[in-house]
Amino acid sequence: MDAPPPVRPTKLWDVITTTVLLVVGLVVAAILTFFAFFLVFASDPCGSSTPCDTGRMGIGFFVALLGPGAVTLVAIVVAIVLLVRRRIAFWAPLAGILLAIGVWIGGAALVISGVPGATF
After folding, report:
1. CB contact burial 70-102 (16+ within 10 A = b; e otherwise)
2. Is residue 2 situated within a structural domain?
3. Alpha helices of the chain — where are they, by DSSP H?
4. Spatial CA neighbour of 58 closest among 98, 101, 105, 113
5. Which structural domain, as residue segments, surrounds residue 92?
6. Which of 88, 94, 116, 95 is nearest to 14 (CA)?
7. Domain assignment of residue 19, yes or no
8. Can you tell me the distance from the alpha carbon of 75 to that of 98, in angstroms, rounded to the nearest whole number?
9. Residue 32 domain flag
10. Quick one: DSSP state of residue 88?
11. What is the pTM of this model?
12. Contact 33, 68 (CB under 8 A)
């Protein structure tokens, strides 16, 4: 009869680091969501003399508003699954933070690109 596979030891440093990074990720996502509301001001020059692509601006706004929270939620789930399986997990919230910032920048770039003559 086969012996059961050995149980991996819990790495305390990984649990603490992952927990701290998850909290930092939540704070970063909240800050990015807050700053997404200011992207609405990019539409200030829009009018009859400066036609803007409001569809592109709207998509970019919602990407910047909802994207960081969605990425952070996925990072939390991945980190928890890795911790339960006793695998190294600190990279998941770290990658989530970087991806959340990248998604926000992408959404902001979409908003800015909807205004003719505007640069990021």
Report:
1. ebbeebbebbeebbeeeeebbbbbbbbbebbbe
2. no
3. 12-36, 54-84, 91-113
4. 113
5. 24-39+52-113
6. 88
7. no
8. 11
9. yes
10. -
11. 0.88
12. yes
The secondary structure of residue 55, as a DSSP letter, is H
One digit per residue, pLDDT tens: the chain, 120 residues?
677 777 788 899 999 999 999 999 999 999 999 999 999 998 888 888 888 899 999 999 999 999 999 999 999 999 999 999 999 999 999 999 999 999 999 999 999 999 887 766
> Is 119 inside any structural domain?
no
Number of structural domains, the chain? 1
How open is the CA angle 111-61-21, to the nearest 5 degrees? 115
CA distance 116 to 112: 8
Residue 105 structure tokens: 């920048």
Quote the pLDDT of residue 7: 79
